[in-house]
């Protein structure tokens, strides 16, 4: 086993520098990364300033961490400039990324709306960046490789940041750090997502190391909800045990309340 | 009128880097400093490592802020090494400060106890430092001047940090700054952040001395956006006038486009 993987977190936003918002994103990420075997070496908070963001990224790169994760500044407003700052630090142009554009376009199409200049802005990324899907918001995240560092730029809205970390980054990181992921999905037919929410919250409390996320497949009126679980552990069997336990607890709670409505599309233990 | 005073905050502690503790000290200080007219430019979190602390202080000094405030690492245990790191960054020896020693001695005397090696440690400061009394704990804080920067080293226990800030530092800072801040928030219901973005940009152009920041409270699909304004001025009435004007301009633009969707959660002029 090589040296421990390292990470720096860069949180972008004037709201953090005036004390209006407490930096829970950084502590959430630090806690997750620590559990995945990564050593967080530094957390830096800077404002919505192009030169500050760029120099902050440049300084972090000079310390050669394996990962740099930024949060904030990916939205549609004039002061959302993290990707521009990142491009500057990398010496690359900021370009309209076709794949990101398609992600943004589809989000607004679903809402029956078109693209505007402010919405196009969310698809502008440093040249060579890979857009990462945002399952709960509109602004895609971005992944950029530079020599030995992988840079992830995530949105600042906590539930968006958490979903992208859980669904994409945690997989990459755990593969590198020697942690295994166990995943499992179950389907619930005929119960509204809003009715499942308190049961999911309860299981989250009981099983804090399992990530649980519900995805409605059909409308609230005729609901089919897929519930996705994942957990990480150095020992694959232990990771499987952890997700199975959470899935069983949730199944029991749902079936106590609503009867035989749970099925496992890929078998109970994938 | 001079330039706005600036500050960097350096938070020291492994507990912050593993996500065990949320950095509320930094946001508390940032909020206080903002109210006193100081611009917090950067917050950095580092672990209990001599070289990390020293290089972090050296980097902050190179950016020439008026203030550097550190929190954490002043206690009696082996990993409380902030003042040693500070001494290294300043190129000064760490010495037993007689005044600090007296403060520590009296604290333990009151408890009917004497000094030990671990307790003496709390009185060791960079040569030339001024100890600041800790009204609610045992470890004194320290104040060091270096060229145009004033460095304050505060304990990490929130109530100790807050007491020392309130009783000593806030006085120094407000004497120097003479700035007042005015703040205001409004809420917009049912309009997407991406639709508000161009209107905010327009007001930002018209009112360049007002800081404006939108915070989505609910998702883009069912939007509730809080828009926060602040402005600094030596004259409090003028600061209030500046933010009110910006808020009124934005309200007008939004309501012209979307109707009566703006509300003021704390009244129109707080």
Please describe the structure with a list of short key phrases separated by commas or semicolons.
homodimer; six-stranded mixed sheet; 26% strand; alpha/beta; 41% helix
Write up this protein.
The structure is a homodimer of 270-residue chains. Helix content of chain A is 41%, strand content 26%. Chain A is α/β, with parallel strands linked by helices and 270 residues long. In chain A, the strands form three sheets. Chain A has a six-stranded mixed beta sheet with strand order 2-1-3-8-7-6, sandwiched between helices. The first copy, chain A, has a four-stranded antiparallel beta sheet with strand order 10-11-9-12. In chain A, strand 7 and strand 8 form a beta hairpin. In chain A, helix 8 crosses helix 9. The first copy, chain A, starts with 5 loop residues before the first strand and ends in a 7-residue tail after the last strand. The model of chain A has no long low-confidence stretch (mean pLDDT 91). The interface between A and B is large, with 47 and 49 residues. Strand 2 of chain A pairs antiparallel with strand 2 of chain B, so a sheet runs across the interface.
| SS strand fraction of chain A | 25-35%
Structural class of chain A: alpha/beta
| Helix fraction bin of chain A | 40-55%
Task: Encode the helix/strand succession of chain A as letters.
Answer: EHHEHEHEHHEEEEHEHEEHE
Count of DSSP strands of chain A = 12
Oligomer: homodimer
The coarse silhouette of chain A is: globular
Biggest sheet details of chain A: 6 strands, mixed
The strand line-up of the biggest sheet of chain A is: 2-1-3-8-7-6
Biggest chain pair contact, residues each?
A: A-B, 47 and 49 residues
Number of helices of chain A: 9
What is the CA-atom radius of gyration of chain A, in angstroms? 20 Å
Distance between the termini of chain A: 27 Å
Low-confidence stretches of chain A: none
- Rounded mean pLDDT of chain A is 91
């Amino acid at each position: 086993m090589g040296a421990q993987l390292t990470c720096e977190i860069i949180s972008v936003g004037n709201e953090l520098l005036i004390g209006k918002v407490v930096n829970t994103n950084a502590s959430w990420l630090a806690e997750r990364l620590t559990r995945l075997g990564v050593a967080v070496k530094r957390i830096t908070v800077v404002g919505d300033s192009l030169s500050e963001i760029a120099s902050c990224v440049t300084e972090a790169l000079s310390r050669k961490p394996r990962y740099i994760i930024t949060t904030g500044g990916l939205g549609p407003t004039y002061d959302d400039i993290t990707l521009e700052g990142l491009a500057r630090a990398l010496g690359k142009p900021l370009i309209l990324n076709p794949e990101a554009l398609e992600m943004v376009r589809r989000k607004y199409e679903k809402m029956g709306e078109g693209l505007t200049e402010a919405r196009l802005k969310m698809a502008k990324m440093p040249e060579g960046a890979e857009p990462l899907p945002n399952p709960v918001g509109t602004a895609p995240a971005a992944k950029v490789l530079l020599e030995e560092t992988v840079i992830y730029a995530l949105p600042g809205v906590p539930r968006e940041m958490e979903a992208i970390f859980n669904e994409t980054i945690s997989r990459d990181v755990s593969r590198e750090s020697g942690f295994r992921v166990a995943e499992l999905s179950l389907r619930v037919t005929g119960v509204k997502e809003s009715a499942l929410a308190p049961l999911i919250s309860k299981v989250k409390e009981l099983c804090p190391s399992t990530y649980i996320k519900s995805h409605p497949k059909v409308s609230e009126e005729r609901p089919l909800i897929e519930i996705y679980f994942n957990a990480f552990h150095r020992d694959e069997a232990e990771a499987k045990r952890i997700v199975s336990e959470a899935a069983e607890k949730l199944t029991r709670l749902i079936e106590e309340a609503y009867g035989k409505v749970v099925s496992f599309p890929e078998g109970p233990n994938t």
